[in-house]
Each structure stands twice: as C-alpha cells, then as structure tokens.
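Board work, copied verbatim: Glycosyl transferase family 1
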Amino acid sequence: MSKRSLIWVVARVHAPDEGGVQTYVAQVAKAYARAGRQVTVFAKSSAGPRRLVEGGISLVDVGPGSLVAVYIRLALAMCRAWLRGERPAAIHACTWRAAIPALLFPRPLLATVHGREVGRPSRAAFRLMRAVLGRTTRIIAVSDATRRLLLDRAPDFAGACVTAWNGIVLPVDAPERTANVRPRAITVCRLVRRKNVPAAVKAVAACRNKDAALDYVVIGRGPAEVDIRAAIEPVTPELGATTMTGYVEDAELEEWYRSADIFLHPQIALEDGAEIEGFGISVADAMAHGLACIVGRDGGPGELVRDGVTGLVIDGRDPGALRDAILLLARDPAYRDRLAANGRSFAREHFSWDRHCSLALEGLVPGGRPGRRAGQEQLLGSLN
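↓ predict structure ↓
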C-alpha cells in the first residue's frame, strides 16, 4: 500500500454515539477520502467491536470499555495494521487524548484541539497533555479562540499550532424557505450549561412581554434539559410558544432549518474561561442554511459571526442584550434577511471540511495540496 495513499484517523468516539467530536471524526474521514486518500479510522463506539468498509473509509471500532482498555485496544489494532504493511503517510488524532496510542508509530502525527479539553486539565492531566502535544508534528485548533486557550497555558506550542475552522455538516445549497405567520427561532445543540439555552428561553419570553410574537424551538438533548424546561413559561397562543423536540434525525433537522428565521446560540465561557465552545458547528450550519444568527461573544462562535454584518454577537451573560437582539430581528425582517444572506455567503466561503483537512496536512504529506483559508476581513469587507 502506498505511503502517500493512506491516512489513519484515530478517535476515542464514533457514531452512532452522539457529539461534536463524533461529527468531526466522520467529516474529517470523508474529506480525506474525497481527496483520493485511503482512510482507516480507529475508534470506539457503543456499537463495536466491528469492522466496516464504506466509501473508501475502513472503520476499526474496538468497542466500549474502560479508558485504559480502549487505549490498549486502539494501540493493538494499529499495531496489527502496521504489521500487515498498512503504514500511513500521517496519523490524525481527533483529540489530544486520542493521540496517546498513536505515539507508538514513526509517522507525522496531527492532533486536533477543540476547546474545553485543553482548558480544563490540571496537575497530572495537564502534564500529560503537554507531553502528548509536545510529540505531535502539528496541532490543529478549530478556532482562534481554541488556539488562544491552548497557548495561554502552553505558549511554547505556538509554532506547531495552526487554526483550521471546521466545515459544514449539512448541505449549503439555498433552501426553500417556509413562510411563517410569525418569526421562528431555533436552537440546535447538545443541551449543556455553556450553551446557555435557559437564558435564550427567558429572553424570548421577555420579547413576548413586549408584544413581539415569536415561536421558539429547542432541538437536542443533554443534561441541561431540566433547567431549560423549568425556564419555559406558558404564553398566550397569539404571541407564540416555546417547545422542545429532543433529538431529531438529519431529515427532520433539515426541515427545522428550512422553517426557521433566527438561530439562537448565546453561549458563555465557564470555569474562568477553561470551558468554552471551541467552534460551534451548529452555528456554521445555521449560517449556511440562511438563518440570522445571534451568538455569544465567548469562544469560537464569537469569531464566526461579525456583529451587524453576518449576524449579531452579544454578551451571553447580559439578559437585556440578548432580549434586545431577538427583538431587533423579530421586528425587522429586512435587516434579518440581510444578515442571513451575508452569513450564508460567509459560511459557503469559509466552512469547508476539505479545506480543513488540506490545511492539516499542508507540507507534511507528499502529494498533498496546499490549503488556504481566504482572509475573513477581505470577504467581510465586501459584505458591508
């Protein structure tokens, strides 16, 4: 097998289990395959152990188990492949922890950092993170916010760490919009504290108290569900309703995007900035689908959206700012549509899994195409 043709992707998670890293693993593998490379994914999921081959991607799923057991199984699976002569041109670990079993192999090693997993480790865990990342060839930060978080703690990694934004999961073709009697806002995410969804629920209720009719739908599941349900207040039907759908499949999610006008993602940083939203794939998807986005200023979403040009950026801890942003978009459809159109153009230009993987491998693997991310300011200047 040609050294130029094979990339190993290593992860501690995989579909059908849910999560942002699971999405990242799947999309990175597909991007490498589209580039003409053979791809083997070494991962674990609740559906394993199993072996699958689909679309030029081989999956070696070592199955669930304790942390140590999973690392050992991943290392053994890679050793078996190596001994069969399946030796990769490079190894892409989808988190720094997933890079641990890959350290055994003399190949360029890439490790992606997403956000909270570099901000939270302390003491022995922090020393382990430093040791692992210190042996990687390249560190890929999914946003400038994530890169800053890492370099604030380990500034000596500056030369090895590059920023490569994630891509868009859902189609970016112009959707056929559904006309609504009143504006509809949605949130799509895993329901955890840093997403700050209860604040969005309360802000929508405050808008209705000012006689702004608005429907709001929260899509997803997670540990913050109880707090979100507690924040939902009954309203009069003519002013709209707030509902929760739980988890939905991709086809239904696509319909929700087509039926919505506004996307709410007022995320905040927690633990003195150690836990952040590193990128915000759902924000990128919403922009690509032509929704006007309101995001918090903390973390990656605060750099994906330019305030007043491609969406609105607010302080997620300021209830009044969030309420006023929602009111503005609910009452001014022309402004809302302009932000949505600009955001969609920006998303189509910048959020590409192919570009992400090209940037990751640039200069490391023979035969790889150089990747380039067009400058934000150049595009945004054209949108003003």
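The chain has two domains: 6-167+352-361, 184-347.
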